[in-house]
Amino acid sequence: MALKNLFKFGKKEKEHENSEQEIHENIQKQEIIENNEDIEKKEIEEKEAEVKPLKDRLAAPKKGFFGKLKQMLLGKTIDDDLYEELEEVLIQSDIGMNMTMQLVEELEKRVAKKKLKTSEEVYDELKEILKEKFISNNTLHDNIDLDLKDGQLNIILVVGVNGVGKTTSIGKIANKLINEGKKVIIGAGDTFRAAAIEQIEEWGKRTGAEVVKQSHGSDPSAVIFDTVSTAKNRSFDVAIIDTAGRLHNKRDLMNELEKINKIIRQQSGQEKFETLLVIDGTTGQNGLEQAKVFNEIVDLSGIILTKFDGTAKGGIIFPISEELKKPIKFIGVGEGINDLRKFNIKEFVEAMFE
């Protein structure tokens, strides 16, 4: 009798395990369906939408950032209280503590030196300091475009935490390059998420890029190896590689990226290649802290700043340039396929500051 009950218990336990597995698989399937529906919906929207000028796309961050500063400054007496209040507003606007201190210190010096008398003049001077710093930080680099060479394979490794828009950015970059006549292959290196693999496949179909993938849960290194080998053997111009963003600590992240870099170097024969970090513009200082970790352990060549049109603060773009000392190569200003735009300093400054 006891043995019979034991078998019954074992059977129930197995049924429970099967039930949990079914739930997990259903969640994965639902995630894939939702991703596909999102992509199809965006395709319809894009056919109807025209590419808006950058000035229009930056209306929310511009109003949120400079509007708040203007509201706080104008009509006020220039004294210590004003500078303290300014510090608070800058920090709240995602400028960050370090850069805020630098800005306010520089502003106080200039106000004293130029003998500025009104808060309107102080506001204009602050805008000028921000503009100068931003232009300076983004012209330190010889080339803010993708460093792609004709007649050879070019690697673009894309890194960043989950949810920042990595796979979407990869799809949009692939689309740009294919429209420029490049032969593009994408490696679905985020094997931890079934939805990420499926999303990369959808972008492949949509753009005409070839996709290398393996099953959910497989070793990302195998995908990287196959992607670079295939790209080299079949004379692709560009291989774009997705990576997992869910590694829980710095050491795991470092080990995984070191392994990926080693495979790319061995298979491509290249020591240097594009490594782009994707940062979500709406995550503020959290995004900057994540970026600092990646900047410490990877030789980043540039930044993709996504969802910048969706932030009402807008200040995050300044410390990214100031603290990372890496060029912003692309900026996301909408959901359309053409709304991940090559970053143009002159165009951005005119749209944001004028």
What does this 3D model show about the protein?
Its main location: membrane. It catalyses: GTP + H2O = GDP + phosphate + H(+). It is a peripheral membrane protein. Belongs to the GTP-binding SRP family. FtsY subfamily. It comes from Pseudoleptotrichia goodfellowii F0264. The chain is α/β, with parallel strands linked by helices and about 350 residues long. It folds into 2 domains: about 90 residues, SRP54, nucleotide-binding domain (Four Helix Bundle (Hemerythrin (Met), subunit A), Up-down Bundle); about 200 residues, P-loop containing nucleotide triphosphate hydrolases (Rossmann fold, 3-Layer(aba) Sandwich). It has an 8-stranded mixed beta sheet, sandwiched between helices. Helix 11 links the parallel strand 5 and strand 6. The radius of gyration is 24 Å and the shape is elongated. About 0% of the residues have low confidence.
Strand order of the largest sheet: 3-2-4-1-5-6-7-8
- Average the pLDDT over all residues and give the rounded result: 85
Order of helices and strands: HHHHHHEHEHEHEHEHEHEEH
Can you tell me the residue ranges where pLDDT is under 50 for at least 5 consecutive residues? 44-49
Structurally, the number of domains stands at 2
**Which secondary-structure class do the elements indicate?**
alpha/beta
What composes the largest sheet?
Answer: 8 strands, mixed
CATH top-level class of the largest domain: Alpha Beta
Beta-strand percentage range: 5-15%
Radius of gyration: 24 Å
As for the CATH topology of the largest domain, it is Rossmann fold
How many β-strands, per DSSP?
8
End-to-end CA span: 85 Å
